[in-house]
TrEMBL record:
Xref: PROSITE patterns: ASP_GLU_RACEMASE_1
InterPro entries per UniProt: Asp/Glu/hydantoin_racemase, Asp/Glu_race, Asp/Glu_racemase_AS_1
Organism encoding this protein: Streptomyces malaysiensis subsp. samsunensis
The keyword Isomerase belongs to this UniProt entry's keyword annotation: yes
Keyword Isomerase: yes
UniProt keyword list: Isomerase
One term of GO molecular function: glutamate racemase activity
Record-given protein name: Aspartate/glutamate racemase family protein
Stored SUPFAM superfamilies: Aspartate/glutamate racemase
Amino acid sequence: MKIALMDSGIGLLPTAAAMRRLRPDADLVLSSDPATMPWGPRTPEDVTERALGCARAAAAHRPDALIVACNTASVHALPALRAELEPGLPVIGTVPAIKPAAAGGGPIAIWATPATTGSPYQRGLIRDFADGVEVTEVACPGLADAVQHADTEGIDAAVAVAAARTPRDVTTVVLGCTHYELVADRIRAAVQRPDAPPIVLHGSAGAVAAQALRRIGADPFPPDGPVTPGGLTVILSGDEAALPDAALTYAEGVLLAPVAPARG
């Protein structure tokens, strides 16, 4: 089994790591275009063009499914990706985990890129899945870019700004950008109030990985017995490469790194 994932940058790591945990035998293809980050400020047409480039590079490796592990690309490019690649290649998008967050009550904060915050797409999800729940949309300028470059000072500064915009009574935070899941602990620490119950964070990585397996009719866990570890192929702007150094500063990148070369 081979699963491809695409994103602007290393935001695909959480979903790739979730897939590695669910199916350690699966070969993974990670396709990104970090030279053009961030995608959030770009026009929908530009995002679509760049997403298609990443998807085509991944599709050349003949995966069984393609995960769009990027909220911005899912918002703007999913119809174009599906029109070009399906039904031959199932395409799975990433949706902010607003529905499960709202099921736990509120108040809720949704941390997302400035482009996604306030967008008709996100407002539609809030209307459909969080009606009657108090929701605050929190734009996080610069956070995804700082995470991409493992810029500790930049991450801390961007998280502090977003935390200051988050109401004190919030009980749940939705991580509406895949990059943010890489610094979930820092976000939790910044939002947590000393006199309040533990903040609940909702990311999308685990659910999206599980959905990809469902789409191709694969079990979420390998059969009993020895498992041959799956391989890893990394594609940066269309060319095969190693995992970026910044990826290896996160636990998810380290989980993916010590694998054999991809097969086939």
